[in-house]
Design brief:
Blueprint lengths: L3 H11 L5 H23 L9 H14 L14
Helix pairs in contact: 1-2, 1-3, 2-3
């Protein structure tokens, strides 16, 4: 089953009207969203296997395919 984020990522990657830099910028926004959701899920008593890890993994794969440099954004503080 394809998730909404997978469809968003695929649409961006396959968009012939966007430059590679524009695609990377849009994918970075999705990556930021996925990180925030993953962080919130890890702090929640809800189900830990909620799919956020796979969303983050999918966007990272797409960024790698486009040749994006690794995000210099540091991870959040850990306890």
């Amino acid at each position: 089953m394809v998730t909404f984020n997978e469809m968003r990522i695929q649409k961006i990657v396959e968009d012939g009207e966007l430059s590679i830099d524009e695609k990377i910028q849009e994918l970075r926004e999705i990556e930021t969203e996925a990180r925030a959701l993953q962080r919130a899920a890890s702090e929640s008593p809800m189900n830990a296997n909620d799919g956020w890890d796979s969303d983050l993994r999918d966007v990272r794969k797409a960024l790698d395919k486009l040749g994006a440099k690794k995000n210099s954004q540091k991870s959040g503080a850990t306890l």
